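**Sequence, structure tokens**
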Amino acid sequence: MQVKNSYPIFLFGFSLFFGGSISFAQQTKPNILFILTDDLGYTDLGAYGNPYNETPHLDSLAKQGIKFLQAYSASPVCSPSRVAMLTGKHPARVGLTNFLVGERKDENSNIDPPADWTKGLDGSEFTLAEYLKTKGYETVFVGKWHLGNQKGQSPWEQGFDHSRMISKNGLDYYNYSIAEDGFEKQFQDDGTYYLTDRLTDYGLEFLKKQESERPFFLFMSYSAPHVLLVPRGDKLAKYFFKYEKFAGKYNPNYAAMIESVDDGVGAMLAVLEEKGDLENTLVIFTSDNGGVGLPELGPIPTDLSPLRKWKGHAYEGGIRIPAIFYWKGKLMKGKEVEAYFSNTDYFATIKDILGDEGIQEDGQSILPLLKGGEIQERAIFWHYPHFSNQMGRPSSAIRKGDWKLVFFYESGEKELYRITEDDSEAKNLASVHLEKAEELWGELKDWLLETKAPMPIIKASGRDFDLNSVSF
């Protein structure tokens, strides 16, 4: 499938590369196509049960590969999640705990967000792109970065050989700019070239031009379906025609935006198939955090039920995300995996595939899951000490095994859920299973102290929140 454009496709001015065939046993180097969406909810793909949105290419990818049913973002908002993927560190450890311009406060609250959280990914951090360059990879970034544009923070300074980064009006799909390997050269849209398609075409040009024997890492970071909900007009009609069939539960504009991403994925896979490269390409598809389930800059984008809440919350709707792995002939076909993991684990998993130790800071390799095995039960964590634009409150959380504990800084309330039986988080069991709640709080508290996570500020005293002051 080719993406429709309003003018000829822009060409990268460099040679592109691909590797040879591989197996896990050989531990040689596959190409890596990492596809990230922005605010795509857990329930938004047909493969995850959505009857309204049309995502045939992603549904096929899930049927041909591995679909995770309990994949998590390390944060309920964008920038911290991207930190986790690119560094293998938890955002709390890096100090980047909110999206970059997130300064929301609540005058009626007894706390303020941290004053000292980090506003960008420092150039001293070791990224997945920098690691892959040491392994001989050609590294390319396309799309939404949202990790800072100060000195040392941009993708061309964070290990990417070539970058096409959205640099202006990332929420406007027909009025934006894209920086090309730096801010000196920029493409500016004139209102005719749909942003999602533009990003896809950058990816397609990379894939079509590759001729070297070196492997590539292509990080396709779509801005869709993040609000504003601006779709291509030619994709809308069918969604309006079936709108009433679903009693107005779904959003036609949102569905059309997701379809454009799906078309882009299909187009890139088709090029890899035509070139005979699918057998040597690991494809990963996921989202940065949960979808938006309330009106934000327009009508409600999505319905994440039965999960509770949405983006900006430490409940399942804000942090559980779709995740699909596909590697033709190497991974299990049509496998659904119940085991949970966090997006801090991608870096370690890729290291493991390349024959290095499958650990990276806060991440652990999930390669055993990709091979049909198991991984040891462990705790995963969330820390969001901010007020989100989606009405989330400052909180931290831990999941370990069947259980999840959420702690709220304003009230000191702790909520305990048996997630495997109650993924809608409807029944707080903290008072029933007090010992389990205390156990998880102890682990969460120790982790927050160990990572030196930025703490909210108590307004009355002007001091950081004291974790040791919390009791049952």
The longest strand covers residues 335-342. The two ends are 58 Å apart (CA to CA).
